[in-house]
Write a structure and sequence with these properties.
By secondary structure, the protein is α/β, with parallel strands linked by helices. The chain is built from nine helices and 13 strands. It is globular. Bound molecules: adenosine-5'-diphosphate. Keywords: Amino-acid transport, ATP-binding, Cell membrane, Membrane, Nucleotide-binding, Transport.
Length: 267
């Protein structure tokens, strides 16, 4: 990895860019999974990433909050370098504490809801604000109730995950992420594990967040959501961004043959 600190300033765009990757490279062994990705998300934007299975979408999301270590390139979140810091003109790996701080500012919603099974919906939501952010419990509980209401689960605060449907569990997971007051939300195929009739209720919450101006990146197979909600659609194939633009462009008269082929298979 090139660790020279020479080209990492972008003051002009710092105020508007929430995510910026520069020539991001990620390999698993000999398999290049991200091959020079320049990916940008402006503050307040909802960006949807689409593309065939195995094209690198999930890995891109996981790199953004350093769940995966990158092999080359740079990632900035809100102007801050991810996973590395400058020391004597070189890049060195950042401390665990700084990486944990970064993660606490990014909400990550997984395909599998990953709720604590032995905690109620409310307890799931208040855990991190109390133990990571050290906020006072009564304040956190009050906010958790507001968030449960927001995701349509005001009456489920005492329910344990096994008593909730997949869609309800995923909505608790979204409320749990929001409880940390994230500056960015990442959704990794948040509806793929759900029965079809439960997909809509989760997409509705995601749509509402986008309309409220939450900065988000969603990897999804839901093309209707991409078309209706995204400000910007990114099409990935074989470890690269092949095409990107507003949904009208991608779903309208896109010129790229790989994009057209993909869309003709999924629409
Ligand atoms: P997508 O989200 O577009 O389906 P992924 O990012 O999940 O794609 O995967 C991209 C490629 O990286 C695939 O070839 C996958 O097998 C590989 N891959 C993903 N995670 C790992 C891992 N932890 N170890 C090895 N290979 C991986």
């Amino acid at each position: 990895m090139n660790t020279d600190v020479t080209t990492n300033d972008f003051e002009g765009s710092q105020n508007v860019e929430m995510v910026r990757t520069e020539q991001l490279v990620k390999r698993f062994g000999d398999n290049i999974v991200l091959n020079g990705i320049d990916f940008h998300v402006k503050r307040g934007q909802a960006v949807v990433v689409i593309g065939p299975s195995g094209s690198g979408k999930t890995t891109l999301l996981r790199c953004l909050n350093h769940l995966e270590k990158i092999d080359d390139g740079r990632i900035y979140i809100d102007g801050q370098l991810v996973g590395y810091r400058e020391e004597k003109g070189r890049l060195v790996e950042d401390s665990e504490a700084n990486i944990a701080r970064l993660r606490s500012q990014i909400g990550f919603v997984f395909q599998r809801f990953n709720l604590f099974a032995h905690k109620t919906a409310l307890e799931n939501i208040i855990e991190a604000p109390i133990h990571v952010l050290r906020q006072p419990k009564d304040q956190v509980v009050e906010r958790a109730r507001v968030l449960l209401d927001k995701v349509g689960l005001a009456d489920k605060e005492d329910a344990y995950p096994h008593r909730l449907s997949g869609g309800q569990q995923q909505r608790v997971a979204i409320a749990r992420a929001l409880a940390m007051n994230p500056k960015l939300m990442l959704f990794d195929e948040a509806t793929s594990a759900l029965d079809p009739e439960l997909v809509g209720e989760v997409l509705k919450v995601m749509r509402q967040l986008a309309e409220e101006g939450m900065t988000m990146v969603a990897v999804t197979h839901e093309m209707g959501f991409a078309r209706d909600v995204a400000d910007h659609v990114v099409f990935m194939d074989k470890a690269q961004i092949v095409e990107q633009g507003p949904p009208e462009q991608i779903f309208g008269e896109c010129e790229n043959e790989r994009t057209r082929n993909f869309l003709s298979r999924v629409l």
